[in-house]
Structure formats: structure tokens, C-alpha cells
Design brief:
The chain is mainly α. The chain has 16 helices and no strands. The protein has helices at residues 2-36, 42-58, 62-80, 88-110, 114-141, 163-181, 189-198, 204-220, 226-246, 249-257, 260-265, 268-283, 286-291, 304-328, 335-350, 358-371.
Length: 379
């Protein structure tokens, strides 16, 4: 009886606590890196403790746990076929890949109460509001801590340490507000603040999500001349994209020096052809094409769907993606859900670090809970 009460108490607050703690460790890690030019291991230790807790808590879900165990076998065999395959960095990457699987498995079975979900939603919204305020303060006062990038490239992402973490956080946040508040989202001050702050992040993925958001709001809104407004909005977005890729800024510079495709991919295509693919050709045997095996994950292309197969191989990658989406979306989706997930998958195809950033997995828990809402508008 007493143990059950403890478990219920943990289940009620753990998602909220993890989201807050991971946000604070992101901020702390960024402070240490930007002002003391060092790296903090606090986030690693916290995430290790959380992962061990999740593994222990998920042992009871034996059938799904066995499939995750099969991934361990794939990883073990793949690394055994590569010399120096068990370096600490690669083991850490393996743990990062497993983190979202255990996050989904745990919360699929321990976050059923509507009160628990509402507490998580409120925490999520306020953390993103706070971060958006920090971004705007950073812009007004030119605070380097809140910049997305070091150096001259423009962008502010608040307390988020990595550019990709901030990008995924804001993309998922825009989706969350659209799904939860539907056509009323344009009257929500939190959404307006967050949407405005997206302008200053400086990443193509977020700008693409903003374009998606505008088009989606027009589609679901009950307004006159909807088709005309949709055409005007779409044309305006295309003209803005043309301006930034052909007349102004870093992407225009990349296009002029390399190609339009390289500018769109932010050099990820060159990373794949010049670094990732040569490593595969020089080091992989036929078995590695099936189950992977790498010695340095920094050789990846930074296109995450490709990088899954770089780490796991063809069969291992297919198993990993099957488990990921089976645990992330264990319910029947309507047309709206498919639109949002397809858009997110397109972003992941072009961007990196989606599967290996534990903070992103927590944001995906929030997105998953919203997608489960049966009242979502169908397109």
C-alpha cells in the first residue's frame, strides 16, 4: 500500500521534474561552456541516473524490453567486428540512442492521469515562455550566453546548449500549441510570444516550422477568402526563402561558393560524401552493412535518419526505427496526426541529433500526449 502511494507520487511529478531538471542542466552547461570555456559532466551523470532508473522501472514490460535487448545484441556484435569498437564515446552514443526508447516505454505505462498530463503541459508551456523571454532579452542586450551560435552567425536560442536542441524544442512547441489550441491559438499570448521568438533562432528548420504553422492556421481558421490568403502566405514564404538563399546572408554565401543544395543542407551533403561514406567503404564488411559498427560517431552525416543506419546498419536501423515509432506512437493516428508526424520526419531527414538528445525525447512525450487527443481537427 505504502509502495503504491510512493509510485503514484513519482508518476505524478516525474515528467515535470525531468523536464525542469534537463532544462536547468542545459542552461548550466551553456554557462560553463560560454563563460568558462569548459564542459560540465553534471548533465551526463543526471541522465545516467535517469536512464538506470528507467531501465529498472521498465523491466516489468518484458515483451517490449526484449526487443530493446535485441538492440543491445546488434550493437555488441557490430562493435566486435570493428577494431577499437568499444571506446567510451561509442558506449555513450549507444546509451543516448536507448534513452528515448525507455522514456517512451516508461511514460506509455505511467502517465495516464489527466491531472498528471495537465501538470506536464503547464510546465512545458512555462519553460518555453521563460526561454523565449531570455531570447528576447539576449537580443536587446546582446548577451552572448543566449546566442545560438558562437561567432558571427546570427541566432538566439536562450538557455538551450545546442542549436539542434533549441530547434527541435521550438518546432515541437509550435506543433503542441497548434494541436492543443487549434484555431484559438492566435489568441494565446504564450503562443504569440513563442512564435515571435522563433524569428530570432536562426535555423532553417525552425523557419520551415513557422511557415508550416502559418499555413496550418489559415487552413483550420474560419475566415473568408481562405484560398486567397493561403496563396498569398505561401507566395510570401517562397519569396522570403528566395531572398535569403539568393540575395542575403550566410546561406547565399554558401550557395555562391558551393551549391544551392549544399546551402539547403548546411554542408551535410559534403559531410556525407567526404567523411561518412569513405569511412563506411574503408572499414565496413558485409555484416556491418547489416548491423553497423563505428569507432567515431562524429563522422556521421548530421542527417539523422541516415545516421541511424550509420550507427545500427540496415537491419539494426530498421529495428531501431520500428521500436522508436512503435513506442512513440502506440495508438491509431488520424489525418492531422499524420500531417504533423510527416512534417517532423521531413525535418529529421534534413537535420541531426534528433534521436540522441535526451531532452528532445521529453519534448516528444509532450507531443505524443497531444497527438493522442481524439478531438484533433482532421484536415
Amino acid at each position: 500500500m505504502y509502495l503504491n502511494q510512493i509510485q503514484k507520487s513519482i508518476n505524478k511529478s516525474i515528467a515535470m521534474v525531468l523536464l525542469t531538471v534537463f532544462f536547468l542542466t542545459e542552461a548550466y552547461g551553456k554557462i560553463v561552456h560560454r563563460y568558462f570555456y569548459d564542459k560540465s559532466d553534471i548533465a551526463k551523470y543526471i541522465k545516467l541516473v535517469v536512464l538506470l532508473f528507467l531501465i529498472a522501472a521498465c523491466l516489468r514490460y518484458l515483451r517490449q524490453f526484449k526487443l530493446i535487448g535485441l538492440l543491445f545484441v546488434v550493437f555488441l556484435v557490430g562493435q566486435l567486428t570493428i577494431s577499437n569498437g568499444f571506446q567510451n564515446e561509442i558506449i555513450v552514443v549507444f546509451a543516448k540512442f536507448l534513452f528515448p526508447l525507455f522514456i517512451f516505454l516508461y511514460f506509455n505505462n505511467n502517465l495516464e492521469s489527466s491531472n498528471n498530463k495537465e501538470l506536464l503541459f503547464k510546465t512545458f508551456e512555462w519553460l518555453m515562455v521563460i526561454n523565449s523571454v531570455l531570447m528576447l532579452i539576449g537580443i536587446l542586450l546582446s548577451i552572448k550566453l543566449f546566442k545560438t551560435y558562437q561567432g558571427s552567425r546570427f541566432g538566439y536560442n536562450g538557455a538551450f546548449y545546442a542549436a539542434s536542441t533549441g530547434s527541435y524544442a521550438y518546432i515541437i512547441t509550435l506543433m503542441y500549441f497548434l494541436l492543443r489550441y487549434k484555431e484559438k491559438v492566435i489568441k494565446n499570448w504564450k503562443f504569440i510570444l513563442i512564435f515571435i521568438s522563433c524569428i530570432f533562432i536562426g535555423t532553417k528548420a525552425v523557419y520551415l516550422a513557422m511557415a508550416f504553422t502559418i499555413v496550418y492556421i489559415i487552413i483550420i481558421s474560419k475566415i473568408p477568402f481562405k484560398k486567397t490568403l493561403l496563396a498569398v502566405a505561401s507566395l510570401s514564404e517562397l519569396l522570403l526563402a528566395y531572398y535569403f538563399f539568393f540575395h542575403f546572408g550566410i546561406f547565399n554565401t554558401i550557395r555562391q561558393k558551393e551549391s544551392l543544395f549544399t546551402a539547403l543542407m548546411s554542408y551535410r551533403d559534403e559531410q556525407f560524401w567526404e567523411i561518412t561514406l569513405p569511412y563506411i567503404k574503408e572499414n565496413w564488411s558485409w555484416i556491418n552493412y547489416l548491423i553497423g559498427g563505428v569507432t567515431d560517431f562524429d563522422l556521421r552525416s548530421q542527417m539523422d535518419l541516415i545516421d541511424v543506419f550509420f550507427f545500427w546498419g540496415i537491419l539494426g536501423g530498421a529495428l531501431y526505427l520500428y521500436l522508436f515509432f512503435r513506442l512513440f506512437l502506440p495508438f491509431k493516428m488520424n489525418s492531422t496526426s499524420w500531417v504533423f508526424i510527416s512534417f517532423l520526419a521531413f525535418i529529421v531527414l534534413l537535420a541531426g541529433n534528433f534521436f540522441v538528445y535526451s531532452f528532445v525525447a521529453l519534448f516528444l512525450v509532450v507531443l505524443k500526449l497531444i497527438l493522442q487527443d481524439k478531438n484533433n481537427i482532421k484536415l
